[in-house]
Specification:
Elements lengths: L1 E5 L5 H9 L4 E5 L2 H9 L5 E8 L3 E2 L1 H9 L3 E9 L3 E4 L8 E4 L1 H6 L1 H7 L5 E3 L3 H9 L6 E5 L1 H7 L2 E4 L9 E8 L11 E12 L7 H10 L5 E8 L7 E8 L4 H13 L3 E12 L3
Parallel strand pairs: 1-2, 1-3, 5-15, 7-8, 7-9
Antiparallel strand pairs: 3-4, 3-11, 5-11, 6-9, 6-10, 12-14, 12-15, 13-14
Length: about 280
């Protein structure tokens, strides 16, 4: 089985994918969009992409692509990560810090305290930034990445554990074009949840309240609700919703029917388990 992940090798997503699918063929992709495209085109059976970080919140691109693409969520995996600052071993200092925007955001306070005057630059992934530093010894660059990337690309770690909060966890999801094909993982199950995307027909007073009440009177607990712009104009949004615990087919059918009666579009993303990988 072929599994896509946000690469390159030694990215946080690759480390997660290797724990979820230790015996499968992992294929590196240069962006989250490429991961979704690989699933959509049938080039891979599944893909692993980041969804949310405990410090910086939701990865907005992933939510947007869950709306745009015809895919389902099979599993959610939570894993702790540490960020390190690394440079080329031939250099003693650096004049720019590069990394994925999420990693830069998660280390903002450290960089502000210690390297306030050193500019930073967004890059496609943490591992890609480490690889770039390793290939350009003539440039005085530093990367924010994990220790596997430092080992793989032969970099020198100058600061360890630079994330702003010790409890730095990231949620990853496994996506596929099939609703029922989840891989059972040998890790602790934290919870079960269901995800769906709802789109209101127009922006009107009480519109979101109508959506929430459909779940509330059935005593269905919503553990997350987040809005994202539809990019069609100001005030136009879709809502990503997580329903906690078991998903009851009869209740679900009634929920969909009531929402549709209100001209609310519903996209069901699947019912799945959330796992915790402790290391």
């Amino acid at each position: 089985m072929k599994i896509a992940y946000l690469g390159p090798e030694a990215s946080f997503t690759q480390l997660t994918a290797s724990q979820i699918f230790p015996n499968e063929e992992l294929l590196s992709q240069s962006s989250i969009l490429d991961c979704f495209n690989a699933v959509e085109k049938g080039e891979v059976q599944k893909a692993v992409v980041p969804l949310e970080n405990s410090i910086e919140g939701t990865v907005s691109m992933t939510l947007d692509y869950l709306y745009d693409f015809d895919v389902f969520i099979e599993n959610e995996v939570v894993i702790p990560f540490a960020h390190h600052l690394m440079i080329h071993p031939h250099n003693d200092d650096f004049e720019k810090i590069i990394s994925h925007p999420q990693a830069l955001a998660q280390t903002f306070h450290f960089r502000y305290r210690h390297y306030k005057d050193v500019p930073s630059q967004d890059f496609s992934s943490t591992a890609a930034s480490a690889k770039l530093v390793s290939e350009n010894a003539q440039e005085k660059w530093a990367a924010v990445a994990n220790h596997f990337a430092a080992q793989l690309y032969g970099l020198k770690i100058v600061h360890e554990n630079i994330q702003d909060f010790e409890q730095n966890h990231t949620k990853f999801i496994v996506i596929s074009k099939r609703m029922h094909g989840a891989t059972e993982l040998k890790h602790d199950v934290v919870s079960e949840k269901s995800s769906l995307i709802v789109t209101l027909p127009d922006d009107h007073a009480g519109g979101l309240h109508q959506v929430l009440s459909v779940f509330a009177w059935r005593k269905m607990n919503l553990s997350k609700i987040e809005s994202r712009t539809l990019k069609t104009g100001l005030g136009n949004y879709f809502f990503f919703i997580n329903v906690a615990n078991e998903w009851h087919p009869v209740l679900a059918k009634n929920v969909f029917e009531e929402l549709q009666s209100l001209n609310i579009n519903v996209k069901f993303l699947g019912h799945y388990k959330e796992y915790l990988i402790k290391e």
